[in-house]
Amino acid sequence: xxxxxxxxxxxxxxxxxxxxxxxxxxxxxxxxxxxxxxxxxxxxxxxxxxxxxxxxxxxxxxxxxxxxxxxxxxxxxxxxxxxxxxxxxxxxxxxxxxxxxxxxxxxxxxxxxxxxxxxxxxxxxxxxxxxxxxxxxxxxxxxxxxxxxxxxxxxxxxxxxxxxxxxxxxxxxxxxxxxxxxxxxxxxxxxxxxxxxxxxxxxxxxxxxxxxxxxxxxxxxxxxxxxxxxxxxxxxxxxxxxxxxxxxxxxxxxxxxxxxxxxxxxxxxxxxxxxxxxxxxxxxxxxxxxxxxxxxxxxxxxxxxxxxxxxxxxxxxxxxxxxxxxxxxxxxxxxxxxxxxxxxxxxxxxxxxxxxxxxxxxxxxxxxxxxxxxxxxxxxxxxxxxxxxxxxxxxxxxxxxxxxxxxxxxxxxxxxxxxxxxxxxxxxxxxxxxxxxxxxxxxxxxxxxxxxxxxxxxxxxxxxxxxxxxxxxxxxxxxxxxxxxxxxxxxxxxxxxxxxxxxxxxxxxxxxxxxxxxxxxxxxxxxxxxxxxxxxxxxxxxxxxxxxxxxxxxxxxxxxxxxxxxxxxxxxxxxxxxxxxxxxxxxxxxxxxxxxxxxxxxxxxxxxxxxxxxxxxxxxxxxxxxxxxxxxxxxxxxxxxxxxxxxxxxxxxxxxxxxxxxxxxxxxxxxxxxxxxxxxxxxxxxxxxxxxxxxxxxxxxxxxxxxxxxxxxxxxxxxxxxxxxxxxxxxxxxxxxxxxxxxxxxxxxxxxxxxxxxxxxxxxxxxxxxxxxxxxxxxxxxxxxxxxxxxxxxxxxxxxxxxxxxxxxxxxxxxxxxxxxxxxxxxxxxxxxxxxxxxxxxxxxxxxxxxxxxxxxxxxxxxxxxxxxxxxxxxxxxxxxxxxxxxxxxxxxxxxxxx
Amino acid sequence: xxxxxxxxxxxxxxxxxxxxxxxxxxxxxxxxxxxxxxxxxxxxxxxxxxxxxxxxxxxxxxxxxxxxxxxxxxxxxxxxxxxxxxxxxxxxxxxxxxxxxxxxxxxxxxxxxxxxxxxxxxxxxxxxxxxxxxxxxxxxxxxxxxxxxxxxxxxxxxxxxxxxxxxxxxxxxxxxxxxxxxxxxxxxxxxxxxxxxxxxxxxxxxxxxxxxxxxxxxxxxxxxxxxxxxxxxxxxxxxxxxxxxxxxxxxxxxxxxxxxxxxxxxxxxxxxxxxxxxxxxxxxxxxxxxxxxxxxxxxxxxxxxxxxxxxxxxxxxxxxxxxxxxxxxxxxxxxxxxxxxxxxxxxxxxxxxxxxxxxxxxxxxxxxxxxxxxxxxxxxxxxxxxxxxxxxxxxxxxxxxxxxxxxxxxxxxxxxxxxxxxxxxxxxxxxxxxxxxxxxxxxxxxxxxxxxxxxx
Lengths: 899, 456
Ligand SMILES: Cc1cc2nc3c(=O)[nH]c(=O)nc-3n(C[C@H](O)[C@H](O)[C@H](O)COP(=O)(O)O)c2cc1C
Ligand code: SF4
Ligand code: SF4
Ligand code: SF4
Ligand code: SF4
Ligand code: FES
Hints:
The complex is a heterodimer. By secondary structure, chain A is of the alpha/beta class. Among the domains of chain A are: 14-126, Ubiquitin-like (UB roll); 320-386 and 584-715, 3-Layer(aba) Sandwich (Rossmann fold); 398-554, 3-Layer(aba) Sandwich (Dimethylsulfoxide Reductase, domain 2), CATH 3.40.228.10; 776-883, Beta Barrel (Barwin-like endoglucanases), CATH 2.40.40. Chain A is 26% helix and 19% strand. Chain A is built from 26 helices and 36 strands. A 7-stranded mixed sheet of chain A has the order 17-16-27-26-25-18-19, covered by helices on one side. A 6-stranded mixed beta barrel of chain A has the order 30-34-31-33-32-35. In chain A, strands 2-1-5-3-4 form a 5-stranded mixed sheet, with helices on both faces. In chain A, α9 (366-380) runs parallel beside α21, α14 (473-484) runs antiparallel to α15 (490-497) and α14 (473-484) runs parallel beside α17. By secondary structure, chain B is of the alpha/beta class. Chain B has 3 domains: 12-231, NADH-ubiquinone oxidoreductase 51kDa subunit (Rossmann fold), CATH 3.40.50.11540; 236-289 and 307-324, Ubiquitin-like (UB roll) (Roll), CATH 3.10.20.600; 330-441, de novo design (two linked rop proteins) (Up-down Bundle). Mean pLDDT of chain B is 92; it is low at 437-456. The relative contact order of chain B is 0.11. Chain B starts with 11 loop residues before the first helix and ends in a 15-residue tail after the last helix. Chain B is built from 20 helices and 10 strands. The chains are: A alpha/beta, B alpha/beta. The structure holds flavin mononucleotide, iron/sulfur cluster (4 copies) and FE2/S2 (inorganic) cluster (FES). One iron/sulfur cluster binds next to α15 and α17 of chain B.
């Protein structure tokens, strides 16, 4: 029987509440028990199928294409377009392939006369009211209606009457809605209900007058909303930023990965004349061309889709600058790099190599990371190289490094149970959260939430949730580990969690009975206060969980895993990003090389940073933009932007993927790896670096996967599928921390510790003891999480940055909200350590009681870095409501003009 | 004129008094005795009696009720009973008097049925426009609760529970389709669900659910009281029991008639309903609710049973008989029906959403004088012969509304092809020309716009 899940509280009911959750489609049958398999006939061929599969799923596996609009492998089954009607022997009428389950001996004919006629009829129906305004339709060239008309339709129309017309709504700033073209497949509605999670789209009116829209006529608010553009088979939902800019067939496609967060999504960059037009999920080959797969399951977030054009910002600088007296003057790249080398050499000669720090942007490629580390250790002779400016303290940064080094889990293995500890993962690494959600929703795996903040996006899919007060997570994790090891009692854990023993026993049983599991831990834990204690605790829990489990620490930084694995960290001896300002202050650091200004930008506000940087003897900045930092540089080296860079990077799960330039570097700028090579050579090492990206990759490969001989080309998305994707094992134990030498002869050749090596928990660092959580009576404890759109330096430069930034909201637990008398969408004054600001309230179950949560980067004045330590918060309700964003955006409500 | 037999009547005598039978009056007649008796019966034996009686659903499809009940999966609880009181099919008007005048009989029927299918909760889904019906049912349900006939431990019987929820629809015909009724009850948009799974397996809130029409359920206590054999006194082939025929249109005495299935359509029209109104001739009859094929005057000497009507090429459906005299333009009448279906299509699936409105546009255009050669071929290919599965809509849609929209078209053209052709050839409607149309006499075509149908 079809699996029945309870649907959400709105949307379109029948299809949403009761579609069977589509399992992974067209799955191979290996490993399926024999008693679940049977044979059937598909288009005259005997094929194997599995109990419970639909005809469509079997067709997918067997490479038999059945036309479909409403069916999508990630969404519930709607069965409304009727395009997948096929003939089944012994059934008098054609039946839909997407919902009909196969049975032993079934004889399916997907292209018989009966099936083809039915499909042709459905195509004729869909064109009855379709405007066919292809010449002005942005979907032209990648339209499923065009395609099916050719493949399954007829060339003429018998429709002689007036077509239906709708008024055009202005509901969303990013997604254009042209209802006349809609075929009512409800993919968009189901996406928002099931994947986006905001239930904001719906079907309105009835019969032939029906149309899709948003409730309250507001925007499609979820961070994945852009995917409805790709899901829409026709030109009803198109991208506003891309609208009328280009025809898709005129654009050059580059298969690359998004550089904006640790999900590391594969994307296609669509460019022309050096300009990025749009970013989409990877395009795939169909016949003789590449196009976005209508069934793509590779969803990307709005930040990646709409916010990747920051390299084209007005502040973009292609040429290099050199300081002469008090002025920065443009200089050819070669001159500038020579000058930088000279300045650094002087500092090294005068103060020693240790007085130089090299900082990397966390989105640096592996190739940039490797060269930066070698530059520091082997050429300059300093321990001080770091990528972790985003971590909020030295201790937090070290905890993050320790965790990343021993991480051994990923989602690919589809664990039975996912235990999530803390974090707004959906806003730190959106697609990672989306994939965790899919595990719960589609694959019916159990999600368990622990900690003091529960991701609201994932909470709806959680089988169990256990909140604790901030600062007590480590203790809870330790207790849980104790219970699992039989050393602590369920009763004690229950009393710590404030829950019944029965609840906690269920938690423990769920974990114990799991064949496989994954411990997901958010490391960007607010102000970085908790990570030092929580990482070792999670490590101990990981050890107690034993076989079949993995640990996936999550941070949002793009290449955290790669830069950590390559040892781009100062270890115990050097000065890290978080210690940099102090070290400049007391004179230990005299020169800084920053590869990307976002390598230093998060360290403090502009004023603070400017003050520190101006005390340096040399400040070499390689970056793509004019900024307050570029103006302070001794030498500014024009660096290629995100779309102009080649290399590789890891996602948070440890998969490597290609980052590929889609356009040439602007002006005289150079790719990061080349800048580092040239810097090394300018510092006197003629043999430093490499002359091609392939050569640098070979060096990276030698360090990370000595056995592999994969070339960069092998990493390329072959024929549209990333056939050569391989997981590079992370080295354990901080292997990259070889002592630095000034101008040594040879490079390091440490052995590799593979992930399969015995798991060794990280040792507790010098974690500050966590203070007791505040209770509501004493005011609240404020916690933060980073937001993928709120990271500042780069994201602010996207052309539609403001649209991507979420509405600032302070999230309050329902019980606390009741106690202080605030409601969702009500304004309140937030008092934080003497500062005041007006915020909108969102009542939600994310934070534990006594805690309030907001996204960092969304609130300027409360930047976590300027508020280290517990923050006392008071909330003063105001008698004012947050205006509905929709109202302002709506020109006219859409209703059918004629019926 | 043949002798009109005085049939024993079960439901109608009380209804004809046209007043609500509240609890006290009902109890005086021995009300709820059957429900008490049913408490002592094994559920299987209630189901067996209903099966034995041959009771068939009165909502339209005529599915054997006892058999439907026995499809419930063993051991799966909770189960729900949903009473379909959405009566919105044009011409059907029998559930309303039952609810408004015999609410306690219906409640007793629900209790008996719940005991039979081991359900503790029943929902009555009442058509939105039936405001009074809902009010009466609500009051009667409250009375029954107050007496302990509903709720926990009904009739003082430990552990037996029946709850009734009265729910009003919001004015959508499609919510009478059983699965749409369920999605609507759940609080969603009233979209029919894909089948399988059928509601008996996975219905309301994903639980096994039985959906029955008001008239179906109200018969249950009578069957339990008098026995299956009594019910089978009135029989034509596999159609048993008295049933309510809603007769409307151009007869002298339209109304709801309770008759056995052996009564012929001719008797119904001419003997019971007093024949066609003054001096007019019968043109055609729609014998079973708006979606069924039309019958011409020479086809009406048929028993009004499922089998009898089917033999004449139509369907008994909800036994709503619509009678049209010679003033009715068949093209106009078809336009009226097509408008209804295009208006009531939920819009979920392609063939019905697009097909029902396309059909309407063509028919309405022909009627307005804009017919083109080839229109009839297009109509035929869209709607088929008026038989299940033929044409581009029927059998391809999610629910039976698609079929319902298509069927009348094929049959109307088949029956009145020359008139359709005359409209197309002359570019006008002869009925309007002759000003003989019934509708003309009643104010003509009020709304001439392309979009609305005339309001008589
Ligand atoms: C479009 C459509 C509308 C329907 N409307 C009604 C209705 O108003 N009342 C009703 O009892 N059955 C209606 N039905 C039939 C129901 O789907 C269902 O068959 C019936 O309620 C079952 O009850 P029964 O077995 O007692 O007849 C409708 C069916 C369709 C396809
Ligand atoms: S949706 Fe497709 S068929 Fe329709 S106008 Fe656009 S390109 Fe043409
Ligand atoms: S807008 Fe596009 S995706 Fe949404 S229902 Fe219409 S055609 Fe389908
Ligand atoms: S989730 Fe991260 S990597 Fe993926 S598209 Fe969004 S920002 Fe880019
Ligand atoms: S057949 Fe008509 S009423 Fe039924 S689901 Fe399809 S569109 Fe809705
Ligand atoms: S794909 Fe099967 S009905 Fe739409």
